[in-house]
Amino acid sequence: MNDQLVINEVTVAYSNVTAISKASFSLAEGEIGCLLGPSGCGKTTLLRAIAGFEPVTEGNVSLHGESISNAKYTQPPEDREVGMVFQDFALFPHLSVSKNIGFGLSKIPAKQRDERINDMLELVSLANSAEKFPHELSGGQQQRVALARALAPNPQILLLDEPFSNLDAELRTQLAAEVRTLLKANKVTALMVTHDQDEAFAMADKIALLNKGAIVQIDAPYQLYHKPSSLFAADFIGKGSVINVEIDAAGLLGNDLGSLSIQTLPKDLGNTVKLLVRPDDVTYDKTSDTRLPIVSKVFLGANYLYELALTDGQCVPCLTQSHIDIPIGETLPVRFDLRHVVIFNGE
Ligand code: ATP
Predict the structure, then answer these.
(1) I need a surface site. Which of 20, 142, 211, 259 has the fewest CB within 10 A?
(2) Is the Cβ–Cβ distance between 211 and 38 less than 8 Å?
(3) What's the 274 CA to ligand 1 centre distance in angstroms?
(4) pLDDT for 64-108, tens place per residue?
(5) How far apart are CA 315 and CA 145, in angstroms?
(6) Statement: 3-235 belongs to CATH 3.20.20.70
(7) pTM for the complete prediction?
(8) How far lies 52's CA from each of 65, 123, 146, 208, 311, in Å?
(9) Architecture of 239-345 per CATH?
(10) Which residue minimizes the CA distance to atom 24 of ligand 1?
């Protein structure tokens, strides 16, 4: 597959702040990427640099093989074949759905424009709302109009800036999955910014995790969740606890956690390791002799998420079916399944 977007060693600085430092990332044609990270890490700045709204101080951004931003040149946003979907949708309130979608198509003949608008209306399942105005639509429908408008000129890449954050939490992941299906079916290359990992997981083939202006890991969602390469990634992605545990040469862990297969352990481990324990690494087992006191619990509908105390006071999470309803202060019988835990050097 050819690379559609290549960001190479890109630095973006505002007057006295380096917002992005030496970021490198690429997307193949039809691939969906996501820039994920905490507030202020530089995600929006990087997206804006790709869109042409911010110049880059160093490095290069290429789209479909052509350099569109480097230290010497910034192609104006309107000349880039880039579609944008903004957080607030940015629809024109006085224009109908059709006219919103057709807004960027003024250069093509009227007949072709109408055909393209109709195709886009079909694509986002809004054919019956063509003459409505934005205020007559739900948030999710407005979002789909914004998507159709951005896709109508057939851009080389679609950039989405927190596109679901104005929608109900419940709708967000569902819509992210729907938008993914739509983009994949139409082989659209896309890059989304979000701080919400559920959205990133639902949408992306590939996630670039950012921290303090740097890309710290690029991976598929599964890898990012199960194989975080740093304590930052382990902490930011998913639920879980990072605990300090003594380990002996045979892989036996303190705190009655059991043992790890020494073949799989990283080299040069000290006597203490840091272990990322996910809720699914600790299983409820009523026949187990290991009973841990319940410190807190949260009802999640299908599940309870328990926080359990180890003998030294550190806590580990445990996900059970919500039928397992045991009061805080009592103990939960559990089994550790350490096959998938992630180990970091404790030093
Ligand atoms: P959020 O999720 O809160 O939107 P973000 O990850 O998108 O955050 P950016 O908005 O890219 O982060 O900001 C990165 C850094 O650059 C922050 O320190 C921010 O204060 C700074 N910054 C952003 N825009 C400007 C600007 N126009 N002028 C100066 N500094 C800026």
Answers:
(1) 259
(2) yes
(3) 32
(4) 999 999 999 999 998 999 999 888 778 899 999 999 999 888 888
(5) 46
(6) no
(7) 0.88
(8) 16, 27, 19, 20, 55
(9) Beta Barrel (2.40)
(10) 45
